[in-house]
Design goal:
This protein is an alpha+beta fold and about 280 residues long. About 35% of the residues lie in helices and about 25% in strands. Helix 1 crosses helix 3, helix 1 packs across helix 9 and helix 3 crosses helix 8. The mean pLDDT is about 90.
Amino acid sequence: MIFEHEIPSGSRLYFGESAKIKREIENIASDTLYSLGFEEIVTPLFSYHQHDAFEDKKSLVRLNDAENHEVTLRADSTADVVRIVTKRLGRSTASKKWFYIQPTVTFPTKEKYQIGAEVIGGSFEKIAETTTTLLKQIGSEPVMQIANIRIPHLLNEKYGVSLEVLKSMHVEQIVNIDLPWIEPLVRLHRVNDLNDLSGFPDDIKAELVRIKEAAEKVQYDNMVISPLFYAKMRYYDSLTFRMFEENSLLAMGGIYTIDGVEAAGFALNTDECVSNKMKRG
């Protein structure tokens, strides 16, 4: 039996103080991103192409349009922003920097509010700096964790390490892999740990150097590295970052390629930002 006051599990309700904090965060984000040269975009809730952004299609909420073509509700904003800007808007705009403030929904009834930005042809360092600037404006200076998706792909494609093991981060299974440098790789945690890479093979070393160079350019004090982190979004193919405050994931982003278009972007988890502010009073 469903009562009149019930809402579906995973959906969001903001009222009173929480609604006020949410609106303040969104207003600060809008003002900050406009000041940094971004334009705003609001993408359709319905999409034909969301399946391209997910390895697991089960998370998509599906329906059909009037001509019986399969449509999904917006579960990720990044892919649609890039496609719409580059393919639909085309020559009608010269802007390469876009931000959005809108929710996503995933199966069965999970709702998530996001503030995000995408820069066509953008760099990892600039998008990471934009994210830290925005978080600082709303009163958070969380830990930044930098990773490089090429490393888990190399481990899988060249050294036979299962991506499922890397996704689940079973450290004991990983360190027991018969590679003399795998345990030192697992133990890399601080940027200073990358000063001596003499024990690693050249292909892994080259990707670790990319992490080191990016971390030094970002110039953010509260930073760690996670070479084995594997993002489940299909379009991320190189450097990524995540921003944590205690156990809350406030934001994530990086550089990626969609339909041959290279870009950089981030998504801020508005719900977690609101929750953290409420906890701090």
